[in-house]
Amino acid sequence: PRPQRPCDAAGQPLAMGALGGAALPPLLLALALLAPLVAGGICPLRCVCASNILSCSQAVLSAVPAPLPRFTAVLDLSHNNVTRLRADWAPGRLAHLHALLLSHNGLSFVSTEAFAHVPHLRHLDLSSNRLRALEENLFSDLAELEVLLLYNNEIAAVDRTAFDNLGRLRKLYLGQNRIARFPLELLRDGSRLPQLALLDLSANRLRSLPVGELQALPAWLRDRLYLHGNPLACDCPLFQLVARGRRRRLSAVMDFQEELRCLLPAASAPVGILALAGRQPLNCSEAREAVLEAHLGDTVTLGCDTRLRGVRSRHWVTPGGERVLEEGGNGSAALLANGSLQLRALRPEDAGTYACWVAGPLLNETLYVELLVHNFTLHGPHDTLNTAYTTLVGCILSVVLVLIYLYLTPCRCCCCRGTEKPPAPRDDSINSSVLSATPNHAATAATVAAGGPHGEPCRSRSASATGPGGQNGRFKVGGTPQPPPRHGLKAQRKVSDPDSVSSVFSDTPIVV
């Protein structure tokens, strides 16, 4: 168009003298008028510019076009041949850029300084490329990034610092890659990605999962944790993880039930994880949902594991129908700041099913927690002497007492001191104790003939200690009187009482 003469504030053309006394050449005047457009950047060739959107999709580009307009907020470079993203792809600072699309480019290299000039990027699409690894601190310059798409690449290695400084990241898509180890550092403690609400790890090469740590994750994160399409090994903890998600109607389970499959040992084809219930050889069973066991006097905390984010309000209802609304609560029940219910000094009447009512921005949810309160004298770790232990201790004590009796009693034959006393008359052999040890008659005669030490005869301990009343001075009634003892070995053998009762502990053979 033909250049117009400059005008004053009233809209009247200025005189040539007002411009310095001489008229500007037409070329210089045209450049002066186009200077703001050049400073802001013009739309590159093969691209379409609409306001602050720059679309260069399917433009057969092998590099990022330059220069880029500084006002660009959305840059679409998808479906091109940009195989390397260097640090100088954006020589100037693009303060307004918040979305960068680089999918379907065959991209195999991304510099760790590639995003230094786009600090306000919130959406980054690197999907459907040939990336093989996520290097150290690759995305650390994107502190405001919210959505990162890395699916359909060849990623097999993820550096533990690749996602550092992404405090606002909400959605991370890593599906259809070659990841063989679960990147638990992305979820542990919630410190690295505190705002993460969706993690897609589907169609990778995961063979096992840290089920215990995944069960401890909040339900709002498990609701968008996609693990289908992996060659997982079948086991009962995996089944219980998925079955719990189905009971809670988590989206990651409900939307992909058919694709949640695993491999049984020596099986040729994968089977559905939810089909493992009662199936051989595992014969898995579902674990009960939210069941807590405690004992009288304990303090317990009931968690409200809701899958809703942005909760507006919540309250608990006790088994007795009492509502716990305010933080701090009254009596033994107290509502904590994180929505959990704390019960102190448990009583038998505290047992039952508690309900947590949660009101979210769009939906409401109710969770139930069953509390079992055991008497410490009957159940649990408070027991010190239950029936089994008492029986065992009793058996051991009995055996010890029997061994003491058998092996620690004094010897039956000792040397008698003092003058020889005549043997007590044996008027009733049945009066002797059933536990007495009667010496061998022949051996006794030989000992008497030979004499013990100091020239004194040796008598049995039982004979010297037993008087007319029997062993230990106790009388046995009903005995048969015997004639006085006769001398000689043959006579001694005839003294045996045929009515005598021998003890099971006696070492004397029965003499007929």
UniProtKB/TrEMBL annotation:
Keywords: Cell adhesion, Disulfide bond, Glycoprotein, Immunoglobulin domain, Leucine-rich repeat, Membrane, Repeat, Signal, Transmembrane, Transmembrane helix. It holds the Pfam family ig. Residues 498-512 have a biased composition (Low complexity). Its main location: membrane. GO terms for cellular component: membrane. The chain crosses the membrane at residues 388-408. InterPro entries: AMIGO, Ig-like_dom, Ig-like_dom_sf, Ig-like_fold, Ig_sub, Ig_sub2, Immunoglobulin_dom, Leu-rich_rpt. Residues 447-512 are annotated as: Disordered. It is a single-pass type I membrane protein. Residues 1-40 form the signal peptide. GO terms for biological process: brain development; cell adhesion. Residues 281-368 form the Ig-like domain. This is AMGO1 protein.
